[in-house]
Amino acid sequence: MKYNENNIFAKILRKEIPCDLIYEDEFVLSFHDINPQKKIHALIIPKGKYVDLDDFSLNASSEEMVGLIKGINIVAKKLGISTEVGKGYRALTNINEDGGQEVPHLHFHLFGGEKVGKMVV
Ligand code: 5GP
Predict the structure, then answer these.
(1) How far away, in angstroms, is 97 Cα from ligand 1 center?
(2) 41 found inside a domain
(3) Based on the structure, what is the number of domains in the chain?
(4) What pTM, to 2 d.p., does this model score?
(5) Ligand 1 centroid, distance to 109 Cα (angstroms)
């Protein structure tokens, strides 16, 4: 799928619409989900224009890949849900229609702050 410049996360990245920011660096932006499904529900997105994890896997640079994976841990630490403080969370990404993806810019959901329950509902 071709990247759509008008998707909502592209607009957040361009600061055209606001977000409840958690963390930002050269590679990622992280903010709270507008419709949280758990006590903590954060999103983390790469700054590069990737539609989904397959697109990222095929086309992102090694630096971008490291930046995103490390970013997940940085955000979890900032939220107080990482294993370093004895907690845990679920990191999940939906891919395309069958995966339930609604926003076509790669994003990981981080669910935590409580027991998040069974993996697939
Ligand atoms: P998906 O179904 O694509 O994996 O998840 C998209 C997520 O983006 C949903 O959890 C939805 O609540 C969230 N979302 C959609 N629009 C906005 C927005 O404008 N701001 C924020 N912070 N989250 C959004």
Answers:
(1) 15
(2) yes
(3) 1
(4) 0.97
(5) 9
